[in-house]
Write a structure and sequence with these properties.
The complex is a heterodimer of chains A (113) and B (113). Helices cover 0% and strands 45% of the residues of chain A. Chain A contains no helices and 10 strands. The mean pLDDT of chain B is 93. At the A-B interface, strand 4 of A face strand 5, strand 9 and strand 10 of B.
Amino acid sequence: DAKTTQPPSMDCAEGRAANLPCNHSTISGNEYVYWYRQIHSQGPQYIIHGLKNNETNEMASLIITEDRKSSTLILPHATLRDTAVYYCIVRASFTDSNYQLIWGAGTKLIIKP
Amino acid sequence: NAGVTQTPKFRILKIGQSMTLQCTQDMNHNYMYWYRQDPGMGLKLIYYSVGAGITDKGEVPNGYNVSRSTTEDFPLRLELAAPSQTSVYFCASRSPGQSQPQHFGDGTRLSIL
């Protein structure tokens, strides 16, 4: 099972882009990278996921390196409401019926005014 | 949109008591999951289900039981509550498909005293 490594905490100024790194050097070729966030002990909120190509949605962009050993989540214009713990997760298995997410401790992102 | 609904939101139990944590989803998702989250940690999978009548163990199933009689409901049962089961419990669901994300409820905060 692939594991991920994230910095325990990061700061970002409001209005600036927040770039959250994640290392997943043991990722397999068929494993997706997912990003979730958790705001103040609420239920985790799905942000974005990807396999090989960069992805963008209304919340964020996901940049995956060519060798797939690391990725970066980008929040383009961070607001105070983006303060949360961000989890980078690599799926434990690509088999649909055994879909599991292995959660680490995440990165606590603090957006400062 | 209701999404994934968990009840109760908070509960205090005495050691040895039993209770059922309720989870229901209105998205017609086949896959449902129960996680627990201890302070400062990521989520750990307790049980999951790929459809009505089908359940399987996750990473930390001891002390818990589940059932899945309908697509909508996936209750989690604690038979003999122990202090080690003090945690926040999250239920999640998703639709089939290799990369479909999981959607989470707001959690049940359970204390065993």
